Amino acid sequence: MQAIQVKQTGGPEAMELVELPVPEPNASEAVVKLTASGVNFIDVYHREGRYKVPLPFTPGQEGAGQVVAVGSDAKSVKIGDSVAWTATLGSYAEYVAVPADRLVPIPPGVTDQQAAAAMLQGMTAHYLAHDTYPLKRGETALVHAAAGGVGSLLVQMAHNIGARVLATVSTEEKAKLARQAGADEIILYSRVDFEAETKRLMDGKGVDVVYDSVGKTTFEKGLNVLRPRGMMALFGGSSGAVPPFDLIQLSQKGSLYVTRPTLGNYIATREELLARSGAVFAMITSGTLKLRIQHTYPLAEAERAHRELEGRKTTGKLLLIP
Amino acid sequence: MHWSFVRKKRRPKDDELGVIETIMKAIRVQHIGGPDVMELAEVPTPQPKASEAVVKVNVAGVNSIDGQFRDGRLRTPLPFIPGQEGAGVVTAVGPQVKALRVGDRVAWSGTLGSYAEYVAAPEEHLVPVPAAISDDQATAAMMHGLTAHYLVTDAHKLKAGETALVHAAAGGVGLMVVQMAHAIGARVIGTASSDDKAQLAREAGADEVIVFTRQDFETEVKRITGSKGVEVVYDGVGRATFEKNLNVMRLRGMLVVYGMSSGAVPPVDPAKLSEKGSLYMARTTLAHFTATREELLARTSALFSMIADGKLKVRIAKKYPLAEAAQAHRDMEARTLAGKLLLVP
């Protein structure tokens, strides 16, 4: 089969198209023929070596396709099922072996491309809005990078819950996208200080929750815009890792909460994985959650897909089509 | 602030003529330091400002925060009268006081100057005390009771069937957290420094008690929970317990740090919270959980009901005459006593 392989960590050119044997399922796995593979920042971190994986490896953490083989103990799927997954390495390929209990069925009304696009970002937005800090109608959330992959989905979910959404973005074009997603207020952080602007928009009161995937450049000011007993949900670090911080800040700034969630801990059981993916798929079929698939690339153009992702010119989901 | 009344030999202004300025006994700190910097002094009895009441203090509570003001970890202008809480009877009210009347029984917290025969407190700090509640009980229900109450009802809203780890489970806050958590139907794991204290924690309702002076609490909590970990850790200890706390919480568990009796926790790398299972962490203080008058009264009335109904037992460790404040602080800091320490002016 054709697959992308990284033999040495490095830039986008470290990914090459190679011929590899089609994987065989072990007892608890299923092998899936991919129809779409999602491109994510975590793939870049693996490729660069920022997150370590044994070399050589095939990148890619999410995808969708049809089951073509199942291991002897794999009871949760059968050959021919349409399935999607995330958090399993090796998806930039024609076939991938995935633990069967990590595969979720794709319901009618959801395309493979939508399913591939929704797994990581859609379920991340879902756990943030519904579990990390269960937003309620009338509450206010500040969403950083609101036109980004997770951000634009999170804005939609928060809006659908009935929360007021303050959205930070870097450009007018992204502001428009965030507004379309349902943001009530846009903060162009390249032009205004988001702390001052949030305080102005909130009339001096703080927001209930900050959803922050930016990290280093936004964390401290984020604490300053929370209401007493508000929640900082730090779920990424696109500007760099947040340095160690003094706990006393949390009491001084209002008995604040901080959490640093990751998707894996919110889909830890099969039950929760099915419930969460099912909820996201239901939002897609009902039209309350709109995905923006910006570009599809042939598998061989993985390198270009990474260059465009890292150039931050993209505002929607990128998919590889094997 | 109400430091003016400790000034010596103040000459009454004209508009105060007719006000009988009397002298009272109070503990005074003139420079920060150990327990012995607290001396019994005679100072003018405070007069109420417009929205204040003056209260005759029947009992004053002794809290670790008093030690932090005394030794300078927390700052306040010198000289000062220590003490944040107490219970007593209103003896004078300012012209803008709305509901309180002379003779009302009240309790309070967050009012510096309580180690004295009289204290002037803003009306909004003062909570009416029902007849069924003694002054000792009312005082214990203030900082310790209010803290325990916000911990289990709000900082992490504890539910039946959850497991809570309560550090210093025989301490003033700890004994109340254990009782409330048990009453909610949670499983309670306590830590204590001695077998005697462990026994008290068990009597308060702890299902398991770890004597941390001879058992490693991380190992024990993992054993007791079958490696699943606890839903919440209530921690007033700080530095000594912080790292291990992160290892005994279940996925998405909550660490509430409400005090740091062993010292300040070093800066925390947020990446640790994700590595250890998408954990939550809060550093709370009582003021944010009694920020409005409504919230303060809701909590105190819940506490007074629990005490009156016998559902919450207040343990008074020892009562000292006001003059023995230094000894009370020494005992508090030696951590030998379990329960509430009180001064009697």
Instruction: Count up the helices of chain B.
Output: 9
Count of DSSP strands of chain A: 15
Instruction: Tell me the strand percentage band of chain A.
Output: 25-35%
For the sheet with most strands of chain B, the description reads:
7 strands, mixed
Please state the structural category of chain B. alpha/beta
Instruction: Note the total helix count of chain A.
Output: 9
* Mean pLDDT, all residues of chain B: 93
- The gyration radius over C-alpha positions of chain B equals 21 Å
- Sheet-strand content of chain B, in percent, reads 25-35%
CATH architecture of the largest domain in chain B: Alpha-Beta Complex
CATH superfamily of the largest domain in chain A: Medium-chain alcohol dehydrogenases, catalytic domain
What overall geometry of chain A do the principal axes of the alpha carbons give?
globular
Q: In the CATH classification, which architecture of the largest domain in chain A applies? A: Alpha-Beta Complex
Helix content of chain A: 25-40%
CATH topology label of the largest domain in chain A: Quinone Oxidoreductase, Chain A, domain 1
Over the alpha carbons, how many angstroms does the gyration radius of chain A reach?
Answer: 20 Å
Largest interface: A-B, 29 and 28 residues
CATH class term of the largest domain in chain A: Alpha Beta
The count of domains of chain A is 2
Mean pLDDT of chain A: 96
